[in-house]
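Hallway conversation turned thread

IA: we were arguing at lunch whether anyone had actually written out DUF6460 domain-containing protein end to end. Turns out nobody had. So, for the record, here is the sequence (117 residues) and right after it the structure tokens. Reply here if something looks off.
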Amino acid sequence: MIGDHDTRRGLPPGQSGYADPRYGAPRQRSGLNRFLGGSPAAVAVKLLFLSVLVGAVMAMLGLTPGLLFWQIYDLSRHLIDLGFETFHDFGRWILAGAAVVVPIWFIARLLTVSRDR
């Protein structure tokens, strides 16, 4: 239980508050450690392991970084072309619908105006 005399009260998480010279002052994380998410050596080992793992999977699938880039490029071009084609079709649908709806609306308005007089 934390009492009123305890020096740990009110400190941010991760700081002990003890300044005992035997244990040293609480260490602050450097900007590099905060940016990397850990020590540079630990991050390098993690990245090396993940690189080997991803490289092995890519080799099993027959992918290379260049081929992967061009597949992503071709996919994005195809999606862009599909999007423009959809807008082209959408525009044709609007014109076809308007060719029927606008004259019917206009005739209905003429009949409504003539009835109101």
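OS: looked through it. Residues 49 and 55 are 10 Å apart (CA to CA).
IA: good, adding that to the notes. Helices lie at 31-36, 40-61, 65-116.
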